[in-house]
Amino acid sequence: MYEAFYGLKAKPFQLNPDPSYFYSSKGHSRAMSYLEYGVHQGEGFIVVTGEVGAGKTTLVRNLFRKLENLNLVAAQLVSTQLDADDMLQMIAAAFGVDEPGANKATLLKKLETFLLSVHRQGKRALLVVDEAQNLTPRAVEELRMLSNFQSGEKSLLQSFLLGQPEFRYTLQSEGMQQLRQRVMAAYHLGPMDSSETRAYIEHRLKTADWKNDPAFSADAFAAIYEFSGGIPRKINMLCDRLLLMGYLEELHRIDAAAVHEVVDELKREFTLPFSESNAAAVPLSSSSPPYSSATEEIQRLESKVAQMEHSISSVLKIMRGVLTISNTRPS
Fold first, then answer.
1. What is the pTM of this model?
2. Beta strand 150-151 with 154-155: parallel, antiparallel or unpaired?
3. Per residue, what are the HEC states of the chain?
4. What would the mean pLDDT of 50-76 be, rounded to a whole number?
5. Torsions phi, psi of 47, nearest 5?
6. pLDDT tens, 212-255?
7. I want to staple 198 with a disulfide (CB 3.0 to 4.6 A). Which of 38, 214, 221, 224 is the partner?
8. End-to-end CA distance of the chain
């Protein structure tokens, strides 16, 4: 919607991971080096952890894009609360060798046969497990056991484990010593600093053919960093809403005031109403009403009405824009 208004070829801050928008910050560059090193070694485990939205999935998709010309057969698995047997079935499905109703022995044999065929073709099998913090210790141990598949001196399966910081506690827990000995490299992907946050925003805008419309003030970048903490997903969420507001308000310059306005809107959207968030915490009785005075109740209602008016105004502007586009199209 706002792309046409600002002359952009695409939405620069979509939440879905897109390797074409990959920005190589210091941390992301180091993590990518670890992954590439692991791929060329062809054995063991590579572990990358990071906060929610730090860019781990985008990192891997960028890696896959760079490895398109290599002889790799790669499969990606996004884990939920998987135990050992479920993990084995999901891996078999990811490589396309699953068999409904098959027992564990059958699945192991089918996987080994598949991995041997990949090896005979001069290729290597790579398994990427995302959200690894959801794995049970037994599921992680199953991954380690699969790494025992070998042909001569060559390992038939290599695994990358991506997860949130708590996955490191799983790796350090009792019984994980054998797996830790097979981890070739481990890296924690932290947030970007303020200068990298600005460079990240400008990089994504330029990738979408941004020509400094809208312009971002220095204090706008500072406010974005203050809200996001340098986490890419939070930056994307905020900047996407900023561009939408800029379109609705016909802004060609984004400053800190605009950022704060959108941040306030986001906070209100994720705030529970009184009845849901505080009803259990505030005792209700005839002598202690939920609001201390009638004045506070009036102020609350006035604020709610103002929010509704703002939302209605935004919807009307969107509808007018859609109608304008529709009317200008040739019949």
1. 0.74
2. antiparallel
3. CHHHHHCCCCCCCCCCCCHHHCCCCHHHHHHHHHHHHHHHHCCCEEEEEECCCCCHHHHHHHHHHHCCCCCEEEEEEECCCCCHHHHHHHHHHHCCCCCCCCCHHHHHHHHHHHHHHHHHCCCEEEEEEECHHHCCHHHHHHHHHHCCCEECCEECEEEEEEECCCHHHHHHCCCCHHHHCCEEEEEEECCCCHHHHHHHHHHHHHHCCCCCCCEECHHHHHHHHHHHCCCHHHHHHHHHHHHHHHHHHCCCEECHHHHHHHHHHHHHHCCCCHHHHCCCCCCCECCECCCCCHHHHHHHHHHHHHHHHHHHHHHHHHHHHHHHHHHHCCC
4. 83
5. -115, 125
6. 999 999 999 999 999 999 999 999 999 999 999 999 999 999 99
7. 221
8. 21
* 204 CB-contact burial (10 Å; exposed 0-12 / middle 13-18 / buried 19+): buried
Cβ-contact 112, 146 below 8 angstroms:
no
Q: Which residues have C-beta within 8 Å of that of residue 74, sequence separation ≥ 6? A: 64, 67, 125, 126, 127, 128
- Cα→Cα distances 203→62, 108, 126, 186, Å: 16, 45, 30, 27
- CA-CA-CA-CA torsion for 166, 172, 176, 180, nearest 10 degrees? 100
- Contacts within 8 Å (CB) and 24+ apart, 315-319: 317/248, 318/1, 318/248
Per residue in 99-149, pLDDT tens? 888 888 898 999 999 999 999 998 888 898 988 888 888 888 888 888 889
Q: Are 9 and 209 in contact (CB under 8 A)?
A: yes
